[in-house]
């Protein structure tokens, strides 16, 4: 998707907004706290504020008169805000200042100035508590932005003073971000950019290239989770940063278009409201679980078409400065030394992984003692030993042996019998294609025969997007092997410098002990600890070897190809 010219949002995206606003307007009576059940009053006030803010942004971002549905919402909001039972609550609950001040700000943006409402807000803001009690950074930005839109002066620290303390400013690991963290990121961008109307700058701001990269990485994760609310907010953030040439934004639009219901509603994520709030009222539940995500979808379409939202060239992505060579080398040394104490029939994959990684490093001598030891101990092994591990493991082990001119009698016998059996086949299923190609690569099948057996097909690539979407859960459950497997597949698919890959590698590197092993078993038995670390290190060296080979000179700081581009294959 490339919408580089002001106001050129597609008809489809404009229709998203129109349908969403129509659905919200048709249910505007649910915004009235006076008509809500006692346990739903606070929820109604929150929904009123968020709907009001959308209407205020519509007036601010589009100079044209409000469409009928927007106007109907505005009239309802103004009627509710005019009641003393609503506006005077500010004086009685100063901690909830923003819940009401945002409504006033929206009315003001729509030209519906209310001096009495303003006076109450101004008195509360100057009262020594409502504007000064401690807030987390993005909530402080919310306060500053709301007071700005209200036109209320203050002596609080500026946004530039607050931004350095935000999550966005401090390079978070995308894998580790909970939903609440992602909302903190999106709202930081909303307030700092004034919803796309300004560009934060200066040393205390955030790096726009890193921000765009992070937003796109999070879009991959949130789309895989089917979370339309976060997909919508992240898409809004890309638009607020002026980015119009994002493939990931295009996929986000496709997703939102696919999940918007015919009447305009967009369903929110699971758990968005407490089950007891609906009390068996299906109509209320239908509204309560969808109103916020529907607002977000409408906002994305509004930002997309607004002639006032700033457009900028896509910022350069950060350079990839991640060092994997030395950690990988230490891991290979530990693995090659430690695995020799164990049964070679069981731990053949670890030996193969170490040999493969040593070759990737260009230092095959690191595993020569290991390969000599295992080849001797497996000289009389049955074919079943080799068969149990599969051709990928066996092939990597063979490559390591050949690098040093080492032979293993039982392995040679197994490979010859396997090649002879394959020769008798007419064709092989897709899942066997990599094994046939491995046999050809080892010189045990001719390239012509391998092509005939496989129909000339290449090995089916691992689908990176579903795997990438599993990274947060794998991190949360400390499944290092799963994280490593995903990193390996991403690197092999061309995404070695993608933000998600780098963050996953960063997590893995943080699990390395000084000895070179990976993983923190959190147990006391020495044998259990070593077995766990052998398994994790085996998986991790394979992943890091794939990253090291894929990045090559691109990982060198300062190189033109060191950063992750918009065309990354992570989808």
TrEMBL record:
InterPro entries: DUF6895, Terpenoid_cyclase/PrenylTrfase. Residues 18-301 form the DUF6895 domain. Residues 552-571 are annotated as: Disordered. It comes from the Bacteria. This is DUF6895 domain-containing protein. It comes from Streptomyces auratus AGR0001.
């Amino acid at each position: 998707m490339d919408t580089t010219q002001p106001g050129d949002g597609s008809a489809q995206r404009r229709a998203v907004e129109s349908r969403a606003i129509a659905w919200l307007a048709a249910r505007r009576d649910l915004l009235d706290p006076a008509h809500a059940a006692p346990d739903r009053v606070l929820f109604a006030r929150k929904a009123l504020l968020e709907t009001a803010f959308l209407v205020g942004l519509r007036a601010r971002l589009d100079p044209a008169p409000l469409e009928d549905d927007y106007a109907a919402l505005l009239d309802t909001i103004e009627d509710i805000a005019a009641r003393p039972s609503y506006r005077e609550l500010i004086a009685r609950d100063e901690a909830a200042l923003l819940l009401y001040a945002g409504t006033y700000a929206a009315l003001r943006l729509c030209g519906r100035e209310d001096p009495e409402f303003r006076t109450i807000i101004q008195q509360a803001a100057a009262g020594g508590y409502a504007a000064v009690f401690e807030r987390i950074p993005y909530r402080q930005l919310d306060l500053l932005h709301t007071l700005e839109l209200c036109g209320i002066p203050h002596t609080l620290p500026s946004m530039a003073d607050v931004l350095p303390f935000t999550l966005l400013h401090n390079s978070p690991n995308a894998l580790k971000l909970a939903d609440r963290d992602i909302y903190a990121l999106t709202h930081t961008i909303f307030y700092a950019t004034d919803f796309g109307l300004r560009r934060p700058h200066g040393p205390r701001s955030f790096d726009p290239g890193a921000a765009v990269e992070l937003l796109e990485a999070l879009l991959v994760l949130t789309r895989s989770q089917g979370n339309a609310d976060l997909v919508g907010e992240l898409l809004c953030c890309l638009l607020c940063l002026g980015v119009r040439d994002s493939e990931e934004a295009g996929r986000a639009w496709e997703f939102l278009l696919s999940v918007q219901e015919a009447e305009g509603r967009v369903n929110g994520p699971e758990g968005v409201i407490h089950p007891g709030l609906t009390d068996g009222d299906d109509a209320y539940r239908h509204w309560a679980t969808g109103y916020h995500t529907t607002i977000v979808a409408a906002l994305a379409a509004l930002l997309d078409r607004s002639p006032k939202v700033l457009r900028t060239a896509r910022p350069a992505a950060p350079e990839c400065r991640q060092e994997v060579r030395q950690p990988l080398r230490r891991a290979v040394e530990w693995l090659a030394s430690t695995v020799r104490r164990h049964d070679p029939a069981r731990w053949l994959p670890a030996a193969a992984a170490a040999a493969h990684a040593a070759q990737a490093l260009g230092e095959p001598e690191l595993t020569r003692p290991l390969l000599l030891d295992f080849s001797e101990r497996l000289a009389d092994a049955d074919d079943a030993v080799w068969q149990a591990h599969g051709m990928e493991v066996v092939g990597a082990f063979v490559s390591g042996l050949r690098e040093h001119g080492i032979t293993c009698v039982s392995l040679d016998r197994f490979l010859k019998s396997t090649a002879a059996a394959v020769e008798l086949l007419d064709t092989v299923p897709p899942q066997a294609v990599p094994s046939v190609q491995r046999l050809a690569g080892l010189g045990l099948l001719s390239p012509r025969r391998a092509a005939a057996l496989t129909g000339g097909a290449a090995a089916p690539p691992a689908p990176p997007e579903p795997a990438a979407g599993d990274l947060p859960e794998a991190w949360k459950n400390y499944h290092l092997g799963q994280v490593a497997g995903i990193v390996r597949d991403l690197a092999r698919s061309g995404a070695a410098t993608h933000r998600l890959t780098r963050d996953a590698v960063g997590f893995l590197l943080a699990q390395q002990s000084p000895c070179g092993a990976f993983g923190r078993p959190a147990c006391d038995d020495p044998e259990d600890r070593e077995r766990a670390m052998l398994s994790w290190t085996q998986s991790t060296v394979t992943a890091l070897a794939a990253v090291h080979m894929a990045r090559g000179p691109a990982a060198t700081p300062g190189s033109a190809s060191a950063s992750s581009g918009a065309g990354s294959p992570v989808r």
